[in-house]
Amino acid sequence: MMRGIVAFAFLAGTLLFLPPLAAQAATVIAKVDLSRQTMTVTHRGRVKYNWKVSTGTMFYSTPVGSYRAQWLSKDHKSKQYFDAPMPYSIFFHRGYAIHGTPHESRLGSRASHGCIRLTTSNARILYDMAEREGLGNFQVVIVDSKRGGTDKGLARRKSKTSVYMADVNKRSPMEDSYR
């Protein structure tokens, strides 16, 4: 009887130090490089796609870090930016999302209000992957290769430009109509 209790205690103690299943590596990783304005999509450890993106302008930074996908919206409309279309949205941090854009000529340069824009066809591919693999298995990693992966420069610039935010928020619906 005592051996059984000791064995159980040992097993229970060992299980406490094993990583939980949810902490395992994501099966889909969408890595965005702000300096290069690119996204590399890795599925089960293999690079599947390299796409041009548009991220936040100097007035609207895209947050650097590692995030899990939180929720999906196939036909989302921006409540903050005049009901602008955000097709195939994958929300990952607060109101930030990866989504499609009709402004494909702007891809490869900073042009959004902080979201990560893709062609609508690429956004659909990514959305389908997130839906198929599950949100817990979808990770968004945002780095800035020119700044060593940090967002310090953007944070400084954002605080210096905060005086101008009132004027920026008065833009017409046609200018940068959505993140």
How would you portray this structure in words?
It is a single chain. The protein has 179 residues and is of the alpha+beta class. It has one domain: L,D-transpeptidase catalytic domain-like, CATH 2.40.440. It has four helices and nine strands; from the N terminus they run αββββββββαβαα. Strands 3-2-1-9-4 form a five-stranded mixed β-sheet, covered by helices on one side. The protein has a four-stranded mixed β-sheet with strand order 5-6-7-8. Residues 14-23 and 151-179 have low confidence and may be disordered.
In short:
With 179 residues, the chain is of the alpha+beta class. It has helices at residues 2-16, 120-133, 152-161, 165-168; strands spanning 28-33, 38-43, 46-52, 65-68, 71-77, 85-93, 96-101, 116-119, 138-143.
List the helices and strands and how they pair.
Elements (H helix, E strand, L loop, with lengths): L1 H15 L11 E6 L4 E6 L2 E7 L12 E4 L2 E7 L7 E9 L2 E6 L14 E4 H14 L4 E6 L8 H10 L3 H4 L11
Parallel strand pairs: 1-9, 7-8
Antiparallel strand pairs: 1-2, 2-3, 4-9, 5-6, 6-7
